[in-house]
Design brief:
- By secondary structure, the protein is an alpha/beta fold.
- Helix content is 44%, strand content 13%.
- The protein has three domains: 53-171, Rossmann fold (3-Layer(aba) Sandwich), CATH 3.40.50; 203-296, Rossmann fold (3-Layer(aba) Sandwich); 313-476, Rossmann fold, CATH 3.40.50.1980.
- The two termini are 39 Å apart.
- It binds iron/sulfur cluster.
- It is an enzyme of class 1 (oxidoreductase).
């Protein structure tokens, strides 16, 4: 079904893409069943922690330049705002000035919950406008706002005609979707609905790159093939978002991040999406540049770049391969990025003893098999016997890592590398995924793994001073997925 960017909100990933949060088995089983959309989410009858769609919405929207955010929620939903002090660091590595984080909470309390929160939302939007003079205001909804049924659309319509700037509702209520990444889609939907303008011209050298905040790994490479990246969404300006419709094509640096935004741009504005796995690993980077060249008529320039880059990094990669060959790795990260990391470490001749993804989308918004990153990983690098889907449950991680004892744990998110470290496993947190992309990305990952392996003693020393809080029953439990069963079978 075509994506409708006019309607107020996008359907959650749970319904749209059949996202699951609990699975364990072979990667090929998950992929085969996903292709028929036949994966049944195991029921996890005990969970230690969770996250929410609003978190993923924050990641994309808090750092939009010239925008203000009104979070229509109790103050607690706003607590992660403190981590955005990293805006300085993530802008510095990109070589640009940090955007101002301009966020206001409506602080929904008991009175608003009983009598409705529209009045305080209107006041907060006005306050955000007066205080920050933004080019757009994004309103994040929340569980409380969703449950009491506040009419956010009426506030949006009124404020837009009064203030004359886009007012963008983002429906990212935590209770609506068990899949956090639904928050990414909610932001893209809001931006496409309210900020992106109809194209007045085509910019044949402009390429939308949907990416996270962090280093710019693209501008210098793109310059060599006469292309300009439009890096979206975090750290971009409202004006940059408005012209997404004029670009020659769209690339998502992670399918889990950009599946909806890229597909919606293609379907609504005719901006083609690059339909190939993202540039993680040398072979996949070559392939990515070749497909990009086909879409933008730059084959000759791209072939030159591929040749030069391969020649440049070949001696480094070969040196790292000699050290890393046969080392046992465990990969634990978001859905598609785990598939990319698996491809990268296998290119180094490492053995992948297991992979866990935080969630799994059974399909993508385009349904194109080339964007099935799990399928591509299996096709290019082989199956993974110990493959699981688990949304950051430390008690499960503890069991998996203790049993498999990999030489290296490669993760992306906060806290997961900590579990490996506490177990004495050299662990790295590959937070800025841009740094791991393209040719230098492979070099960077190899160097980081070698550094971690060389710090083996440090990890061992930490583990000697850690006592996990689990009972002897859980420590001696054989099955890490003991709680991933139908409740009635327990
Ligand atoms: S939106 Fe809901 S799930 Fe998310 S932080 Fe607020 S209360 Fe928690």
């Amino acid at each position: 079904m075509a994506i409708d960017i006019v309607k107020s909100e996008v359907e959650t990933r749970d319904n749209r893409l059949g996202a699951v949060l609990a699975f364990h088995g072979r990667a090929s089983t998950l992929q085969k069943d996903s292709s028929k959309r036949a994966v049944k989410d195991d029921e996890r009858i005990y969970s230690q922690c969770s996250d929410c769609s609003q978190g993923c919405a924050e990641v994309l929207s808090y750092m939009i330049r010239d925008a203000a955010i009104v979070v229509h929620s109790p103050l607690g939903c706003l607590s992660p705002v403190s981590i955005y002090e990293r805006v300085e660091a993530s802008s510095k590595v990109r070589g640009i000035e940090a955007p101002k984080i301009q966020v206001i909470s409506t602080n929904i309390g008991i009175d608003s919950t009983v009598y409705g929160g529209v009045k305080i939302l209107k006041a907060a939007v006005r306050e955000a406008y007066d205080r920050f003079h933004p080019k757009a205001i994004l309103i994040h909804s929340s569980c409380a706002a969703g449950i009491i049924g506040d009419d956010i659309e009426s506030v949006v319509d009124e404020a837009e005609s009064e203030l004359g700037i886009p007012i963008v509702p983002i429906y990212c209520e935590g209770f609506k979707s068990k899949t956090w990444t639904s928050g990414f889609d909610a932001v893209f939907h809001g931006i496409l609905r309210k900020i992106v303008k109809k194209p007045t011209k085509k910019q044949e050298d402009l390429v939308n790159i949907i990416n996270f905040a962090g280093q710019d790994a693209y501008t210098a490479l793109f310059k060599r093939i006469n292309l300009r990246p439009n890096l979206i969404v975090p750290n971009s300006s409202v004006d940059q978002l408005a012209i997404m419709s004029e670009a020659a094509c769209t690339i998502s640096i992670c399918e889990s991040l950009g599946t909806y935004g890229a597909a919606a741009l293609e379907q609504n504005y005719g901006v083609p999406q690059l339909k190939v796995s993202s540039p993680y690993g040398i072979e996949w980077t070559d392939r990515w540049f070749r497909e990009l060249a086909k879409l933008t008529n730059r084959t000759e320039l791209a072939e030159k770049l591929i040749k030069e880059e391969n020649e440049r990094i070949k001696p480094i990669i070969e040196g790292y391969r000699k050290i890393l060959k046969g080392k046992r790795a465990y990969v634990y990260s978001g859905d598609s990025f785990a598939h990319y990391l698996t491809n990268m470490v296998r290119e180094y001749g490492m053995e992948v003893v297991g992979v866990t993804t935080l969630h799994h989308d059974q399909t993508t918004d385009t349904k194109n098999p080339s964007l099935d990153t799990l399928g591509e990983m299996i096709k290019y690098t082989g199956d993974v016997e110990r493959f699981s889907v688990c949304n950051k449950q430390p008690f499960i991680m503890y069991k998996i890592f203790s049993e498999l004892k990999p030489d290296i744990l490669i993760t992306r998110h906060d806290s997961i590398a900590t579990i490996g470290t506490k177990l004495g496993i050299p662990s790295i947190r590959a937070n800025d995924i841009n740094v791991l992309s393209c040719y230098d990305g492979s070099v960077n990952l190899g160097a980081r793994i070698i550094d971690a392996l060389n710090s083996n003693k440090f990890f061992k020393t930490i583990s000697e001073h850690v006592k996990f809080p689990y009972s002897s029953w859980w420590i001696n439990q054989k099955d890490p997925f003991y709680f991933d069963k139908k409740a009635e079978t327990k």
